[in-house]
Amino acid sequence: MSPIKLSKWFSFTASRDWFYRYSFTNAGLSSVTTNLGDGTVMHCWVPKVHKHSKPTLLLVHGFGANAMWQYGEHLRHFTTRFNVYVPDLLFFGRSFTSRPERTESFQASCVMKLMEVRGVHRMSLVGISYGGFVGYSMAAQFPEAVERVVLCCAGVCLEEKDMENGLFKVSDLDEAASILLPQKPEKLRQLIGLSFVKKARVMPSWFLSDYINVRLSHVSFSLYVMCKGFVEERRELIQTVLKDRSLSDLPVIKQPTLIIWGEQDQIFPLELGYRLRRHVGKNAQLVIIKNAGHAVNLEKPKEFVKNLKLFLLG
């Protein structure tokens, strides 16, 4: 049977998603959906039993499918030492809202409300890429709740003028959205090329199409797991991140902060990591991981976890 015919009967992406779901459940987490009111619903992986003797760790994902895909390789390293919570941000996975807000500030307030509903009022957090924008906003808005902060390849200190000044590989927001929200195999191939230093030699279009178009049947409503869900809403999230953004408007967080960056990040260049360390000041430390790009958590998982452990547990 040819690979193209096989892909009609078997989805590699759906199988991988099932594996992550199994591993999250096996790690002692439950899939919970919470109605926050005002048309906002958030999905989160939460501990089956919250142990008050352990601290809480919140893992916030970036752009992509859902939280499982970005933290599936790391979860087992933290569930024994922390009460781990892994939410889907709005318009990812099974989280959504009918409200018009698209800012990371609104995302942050929704995550905080979710945690309060779960009875959690103090936590450390890890934010990858866009999740770092949300995590930074949580630390700024709720300093009494957020104890320690890890920001991984999160271009929080970018400014609107950076696009005009040629800091990024793309020339405008429309081009950025077409890559970050790939709807065709060639765009997904381009995104992978920008995210990883070491690329797969062969990425057939039928395989990439499966990743883009797969639906899951085990949820209560039809859901695109990857790139087809909430496309317009996610595009608005990208536009809002950059619109009128200025470093002078960004508050300085006071929590101990670890900044992790892939040395060859082509989505948020390393310059933004240095800029973020300068902005946060004495409370920040910057770790640069060599031979890694934007997807440093996936490309160098051992180094990523090692640095998280040293910071969060040391």
UniProtKB/TrEMBL annotation:
Pfam families: Abhydrolase_1. Gene3D superfamilies: alpha/beta hydrolase. InterPro entries: AB_hydrolase_1, AB_hydrolase_fold, Epox_hydrolase-like, Meta-cleavage_hydrolase. Residues 55-301 form the AB hydrolase-1 domain. Transmembrane segments: none annotated. It comes from the Eukaryota. GO terms for molecular function: catalytic activity. PANTHER family: ALPHA_BETA-HYDROLASES SUPERFAMILY PROTEIN, SI:DKEY-122A22.2. This is AB hydrolase-1 domain-containing protein. It comes from Castanea mollissima (Chinese chestnut). The lineage of its organism: Eukaryota, Viridiplantae, Streptophyta, Embryophyta, Tracheophyta.
